């Protein structure tokens, strides 16, 4: 378990000081994929760099199983930066072996693990190609392999699915999921909210250097449910606007969305049935995009 508690970070001095992280707290649980989402400037990359020890923080703490994080643990983290971080003119397999050796693997173990990873990521046929000869999507998968090649104790990935087509997303996810299933905590940031919603076990939503919402998708849906309902009636539903304790948020003929408590919503359903029939009725399921917009507003 990696725990971040009350993390603060500022850049600059005096009047030009920018307070980037403002008491950030969240957990990265073992064996789970944690999605780290927020707009540009929310503090995601700064937080990741502090986790890795690339930046110092001004206040707060980061612990691993209750013990302050140290250089030894950080040396075992697999990191994928958003920027391209590999050597463009070096063959893919050779540089993965080199990176694994830097982390303490023997040449034989490094080559065996790198080869297996490239096969799992559908890059086996390109292992001897220079990185610059690969498409951007394949370069992205090579960077994922570089983060995994030393059998990391944790994974921190900045936009790992950027530029990947749907098949490549599925292939990459399967490899990351296998890693998480061994008990490794995984944190990844992404602007692709639909991908995050489909892939992650838990979410941490940032805005202006603060955590605005955190938890599983179901937790966030429950917290931001808003008691909104959707009715598709056989006849015009304009009458719903006159019902006590109901606020209509959308109306188009027999299609209406409204907020109300459950008892009132059931009364609306009965009335609609009596007025001519109901095609569909139920609570509105929020999307991650809607929750993100509401949480960061």
Automatic annotation (TrEMBL):
Q: Name one GO molecular function term.
A: ATP hydrolysis activity
Q: Which PROSITE patterns match?
A: ABC_TRANSPORTER_1, ABC_TRANSPORTER_2
Where does the record place the ABC transporter domain?
2-233
Coiled coil residues, start to end: none
Record keywords, A-Z: ATP-binding, Nucleotide-binding, Transport
What SMART domains does the database record attribute to this sequence? AAA (SM00382)
The protein's matches in InterPro entries, at most eight in alphabetical order, are given as: AAA+_ATPase, ABC_transporter-like_ATP-bd, ABC_transporter-like_CS, DrrA1/2-like_C, P-loop_NTPase
Question: What SUPFAM superfamilies does this protein map onto?
Answer: P-loop containing nucleoside triphosphate hydrolases
Instruction: Report if keyword Zinc is assigned.
Output: no
Q: Could you name the domain of life of the organism this protein comes from? A: Bacteria
Q: Where is the signal peptide?
A: none
Q: Which family does it belong to?
A: Belongs to the ABC transporter superfamily.
Q: What is this protein called?
A: ABC-2 type transport system ATP-binding protein
């Amino acid at each position: 378990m990696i725990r971040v508690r009350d993390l603060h970070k500022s850049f600059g001095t005096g009047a030009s000081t920018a307070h980037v992280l403002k008491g950030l707290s969240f957990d990265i649980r073992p064996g789970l994929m944690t999605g780290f989402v927020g707009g540009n400037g929310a503090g995601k990359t700064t937080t990741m760099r502090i986790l890795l020890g690339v930046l110092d923080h001004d206040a707060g703490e980061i612990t691993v199983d209750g013990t302050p994080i140290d250089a030894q643990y950080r040396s075992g983290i697999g990191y994928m930066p958003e920027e391209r971080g590999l050597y463009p003119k070096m063959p893919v397999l050779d540089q993965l072996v080199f990176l694994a050796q830097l982390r303490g693997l023997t040449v034989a173990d490094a080559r065996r693990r790198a080869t297996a990873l490239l096969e799992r990521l559908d890059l086996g046929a390109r292992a001897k190609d220079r990185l610059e000869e690969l498409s951007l999507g394949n370069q992205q998968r090579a960077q994922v392999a570089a983060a995994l090649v030393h059998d990391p104790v944790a994974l921190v990935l900045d936009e790992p699915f950027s530029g990947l087509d749907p098949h490549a997303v599925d292939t990459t996810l399967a490899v990351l999921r296998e890693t998480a299933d061994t008990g490794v905590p995984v944190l990844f940031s992404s602007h692709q909210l639909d991908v995050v919603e489909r892939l992650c076990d838990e979410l941490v939503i940032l805005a202006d250097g603060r955590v605005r919402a955190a938890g599983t998708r179901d937790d966030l849906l429950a917290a931001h449910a808003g008691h909104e309902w959707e009715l598709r009636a056989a006849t015009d539903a304009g009458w719903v606007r006159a019902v006590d304790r109901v606020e209509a948020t959308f109306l188009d003929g027999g299609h209406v969305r409204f907020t109300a408590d459950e008892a009132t919503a059931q009364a609306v359903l009965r009335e609609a049935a009596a007025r001519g029939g109901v095609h569909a009725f139920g609570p509105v399921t929020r999307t991650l995009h809607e929750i993100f917009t509401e949480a960061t507003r």
